[in-house]
Design brief:
mainly alpha
């Protein structure tokens, strides 16, 4: 139902954030991301 869709949306959002963090780490920008948070 709707709860399942919400959980999937959160999982997708977390996956995107994790991907951005990994990309930033590879680019040496992890410190900048930490400040943004």
């Amino acid at each position: 139902g709707r709860a399942g869709l919400e959980v999937r949306a959160v999982d997708a959002d977390e996956a995107v954030r994790a991907g951005l963090v990994e990309a930033a780490r590879e680019n040496g920008m992890i410190a900048r991301i930490g400040v943004a948070r």
